[in-house]
Amino acid sequence: xxxxxxxxxIVANPKxxxxxxxxxxxxxxxxxxxxTLYYLLMGTVAFYPEALRTLISPESVVTIGWPLxxxxxxxxxxxxxxxxxxxxxxLEPLNAAVLxxxx
Length: 103
Fold this sequence. Notes:
Blueprint: H1 3-12, H2 14-47, H3 49-52, H4 65-102
Helix pairs in contact: 2-4
């Protein structure tokens, strides 16, 4: 069997098509969450910097901007972990099923 035939069989496999759809849906959803948070933070920095200069408490030297910036980073890490978890539990079994069907 030639490599072109193998590729055609894989692409025609409904499980592969489901794998591609699921992976794309997960990836794009997480991308839009992160990019939205990032641009909201950057928009706030650009247009409302005084909001980020607000102190957390009157006695504090920490402004609200620090935890908000850190939250964007932490949320990105958490979404990366969530993607890894979903890839291992949802995507990898689909990938294995496609490979099994190929044999």
